[in-house]
Specification:
alpha/beta, Aminopeptidase, 13 helices, elongated, disordered N terminus, binds zinc ion
């Protein structure tokens, strides 16, 4: 008897947790009425402007980004959306741009060139021009000291340049270049030259990163401790020039460099720039709940002009940007007609995303609305294309929705079920997904601060980060439906009686 009873009770407990009542969308006559003002015709009209050549690819800190900010501000103002930052539509932030380095190594009357015969990461150490005697080089094979292995044995590397093989033997796979570099530094080395048997393919992988300018927030303090000693990756050609002879592996340590100088010429250009997030506010109608905020983001910056080609970024993230305009207009219309949301809606097109999620990070480090009163962030980044995993365009990837608040996930499910009926694809929501999209767009800066987020995304495609990401390839009916889903979910979040429950 007992066994049976306990069996039955277990069954009941299980079924209770399985058949949890799904979230029920609040009754409203109005959500659909205002969502229907989000139309593909208007989305297209906006996108044809901001993703045109005239906007020069909207690169952060550059003319096209500023033109886009101005366009967004003018649209928001024309809808009647209030400026969100103490009377201004902008939240400015300062940037430091480091241009692509100009660097050469002169040796044996030969001129070796950056990104050809050698490369380095300009932002990871202080690279200054130098001239050294070639006999300052000390080879330490793999540069590993662990267990019985001691590649530094009998070698004094204090104040020297150590030459280290980049690849490690099988049992020492933890020894990547960072670890080797830090170790060489701890031994007193002043620089490291890495040799590699895969130089060409390694270079190929990072070439794009090496040949463009980089940006960082000027408000970030550069932590000297995070900088390495100067380090270079050398081609075999350059290395064998340094060692003068062919260099069979086993003889690596026996080679003696010549008494000649190695000259490293280097100039780097740095400049200060300014960019901005755009901020619009649709203040909540409830005197208490208006102090709680739903923040809607999309990045309006893109890659600008590279080697004469304009990267218009129609999908990335033109689609998210124009979606925000239409959603703002819908909420403002509701408010103007006396049906506005109870909580406040913040429309926050951010910039600096392509430079490393800078605008959204600046916002969360300098929040205009208190983070503790920020209920959720819904972020839209690329919603206008079909990826290789789908044949039917009626889908959207939903990422991150359940990570901080399961209730948020349920709400998004419920609004979609009631209104938009898209296939919600959770493939990229898995914790171990190798693409790591959860960490790759602006919502992550909110999630990092414990704020529930949803990232809406339709996937990558062959035009991703290419000059061919153009307006004529955008599926505007798809953009319309996903924008409406974001609107419905935001509407529900803004009007529901209690604030979102966070996961325990
Ligand atoms: Zn993007």
């Amino acid at each position: 008897m007992k066994l049976v009873i306990s069996f039955v009770s277990i069954t009941i407990v299980l079924s209770c947790s399985v058949i949890k009542p799904a979230y029920k969308v609040g009754k409203t006559k109005y959500a659909e009425k205002y969502a229907s003002t989000i139309t593909q015709e208007e989305l297209k009209k906006h996108l044809e402007i901001i993703a045109s050549d005239e906007y020069e690819g909207r690169e952060t800190g550059k003319k096209g980004q500023k033109m886009t900010a101005e366009y967004l501000k003018n649209q928001l103002t024309s809808y009647g959306v209030a400026p969100g930052n103490k009377g201004s539509n902008f939240q400015y932030f300062p940037l430091i741009e480091t241009n692509k380095p100009q660097a050469n190594i002169l040796f044996h009357n030969k001129d070796f060139r950056y990104t050809k015969e050698f490369y380095f990461y300009a932002t990871m150490a202080n690279f200054e021009p130098f001239e050294v005697c070639a006999d300052e080089l000390v080879a330490v094979e793999y540069g590993i000291v662990e267990g019985k292995r001691d590649d530094y044995k009998g070698k004094n590397v204090e104040g020297k340049i150590v030459v280290i093989k980049l690849e490690s033997p099988e049992d020492f796979s933890k020894w990547d270049w960072r670890k080797k570099l830090k170790f060489a530094e701890s031994k007193g080395a002043k620089q490291v030259f890495f040799s590699s048997s895969n130089y060409a393919s390694n270079l190929e992988k990072v070439h794009h990163y090496l040949t463009k300018s980089s940006m960082r927030l000027a408000t970030d303090k550069v932590n000297k401790k995070e900088l390495f000693i100067p380090f270079f990756f050398l081609s075999d050609e350059l290395l064998s020039e340094i060692y003068l002879m062919e260099r069979p592996e086993q003889e690596f340590l026996n080679r003696y460099p010549q008494y000649e100088t190695i000259q490293f010429l280097y100039t780097k250009g740095m400049g200060r720039l300014e960019s901005s997030n755009v901020v619009g506010l649709i203040e909540g109608s409830d005197s208490v709940l208006k102090h709680e905020y739903i923040i809607l983001t999309a990045h309006y910056d893109h890659l600008g002009i590279q080697e004469g080609e304009i990267y218009n970024g129609a999908d990335d993230d033109g689609t998210g940007t124009v979606a925000l305009l239409e959603i703002a207009q819908a909420f403002q219309k509701a408010k103007d007609e006396g049906n506005g949301p109870k909580r406040s809606i913040v429309i926050l097109p951010v910039s600096g995303e392509e430079k490393g999620l800078l605008g959204s990070r600046y916002y969360t480090e300098n929040p205009i609305f208190p983070l503790e009163n920020t209920v959720a962030n819904l972020n839209i980044d690329m919603i206008g294309r079909l990826d290789q995993f789908h044949t039917n365009k009626e889908y959207v990837y939903v990422i991150g929705a359940d990570k901080i608040s399961k209730e948020l996930h349920q709400i998004n499910e419920a609004t979609n079920k009631k209104y938009t009926k898209l296939e919600l694809d959770y493939t990229f929501n898995k914790d171990n997904d190798p693409n790591r999209f959860y960490y790759r767009s602006d919502h992550y800066n909110f999630a990092k601060n414990g704020i529930p987020v949803i990232f809406y995304f339709s996937g990558v495609h062959e035009d991703y980060h290419q000059p061919s990401d153009e307006v004529d390839k955008i599926l505007f009916d798809k953009v319309e439906t996903i924008s409406q889903l974001v609107f419905f979910t935001a509407w529900e979040l803004a009007n529901k009686p209690s604030r979102l429950k966070l996961n325990k």
